[in-house]
Amino acid sequence: MTTEFVGTQQTVIERPSKLSTPAYADLLRPWPRINVRSVLTVIFLAGFFAWGMNGTDARPGELIDGLDNIADFIGRLFPPTFEMTAVPLAIPAFQLFGVAIPTLGFPGVTFPWPQVMSAIIETVQMAIIGTAGAIFLAMPFGLLAARNTSPHPWVYQGTRMLLNANRALPEIVYALIFVAAVGLGPFGGVLALAIGSVGSMGKLYAESIESIDPQQVLAVRATGSNGLLTFIYAVIPQALPVIASYSLLLFEGNIRAASILGLVGAGGVGFIISKYLALFQYQRLMGAMVLLIITITVIDRLSDQLRKRII
């Protein structure tokens, strides 16, 4: 109830308070209103979860019984040890653009170096080249798979199907294919990372392009710009920060993927990890894991700083 003055007369006007309306009453309600739709949703989610539990043969009781075995395995990992090797404190002779570069440093001096660290460095190198190849290959597919940049609906649907087919296979399958093609070593792993990431990154790039503000595109077109200039000055500046963030995330994920690819002979630290597991050298395995965690943490901090500068 409110009181208003109309001229010199006082008029009492009854108006409902906002807090008494049904909308505000629903906001003040501590629990959501129960209706048939919400009950059916809960039943469906419960059945869906039960179906998943039944299909995976999940038995939490067995996990509790196996905690002793997990504790025993963790106990065998400590203290971590490192397989050391003597590395010369010098850069060996090599050729640069046909020019012979002599040995640099102190050829007769060596220092201890964890053997697994060389494999971790190789893993990072594989992730760098594999990520660069994936970005180069996925960008055109991202443009063709975005509704607002695809030239035709059939091109859009076909590109989406190709990305789905690529994304359906894990990187280790591509590693097996390329190791059979180019032989054992990190090059097969680089090809597996580059080709195996096209499907996921192409989809993410397409969604980034689709989420841009169309008004900015119309504003650039209103100046008389053609399609190429509109794409350069209206589409790329909006999508680039998100694309760069996804690319950095891909690089971090490729380090983990490159570690797994070594299990099939595609180079990296995975080969040494599999050797330690096969020989039951759990303390050396823990040492390799410690160095790998430190490397990934450093890369995460560096990529986080770079991401802050881009976004």
- Quaternary structure of the protein: single chain
Largest sheet: 2 strands, antiparallel
Strand order of the largest sheet: 1-2
| Name of the CATH architecture of the largest domain | Orthogonal Bundle
The amount of helix comes to 55-70%
The averaged pLDDT comes out at 83
Low-confidence stretches: none
Secondary-structure topology with pairs:
Elements: E1 2-6, E2 9-13, H1 22-28, H2 36-55, H3 60-65, H4 67-76, E3 84-91, E4 94-96, E5 99-101, E6 104-114, H5 115-144, H6 153-168, H7 171-182, H8 186-196, H9 198-210, H10 214-222, H11 227-261, H12 270-278, H13 282-310
Helix pairs in contact: 5-8, 5-9, 5-11, 6-9, 7-8, 8-11, 9-11, 10-11, 11-13, 12-13
Short overview:
With 311 residues, this protein is mainly α. It is 67% helix and 11% strand.
Summarize the structure in words.
This protein is mainly α and 311 residues long. It folds into 3 domains: 54 residues, no CATH class; 30 residues, no CATH class; 195 residues, Orthogonal Bundle (MetI-like fold). The chain has 13 helices and 6 strands. The strands form 3 sheets. Strands 1-2 form a two-stranded antiparallel sheet. Strands 3-6 form a two-stranded antiparallel sheet. A two-stranded antiparallel sheet has the order 4-5. The longest helix is centred in the last third of the chain and has 35 residues. It starts with a strand and ends with a helix.
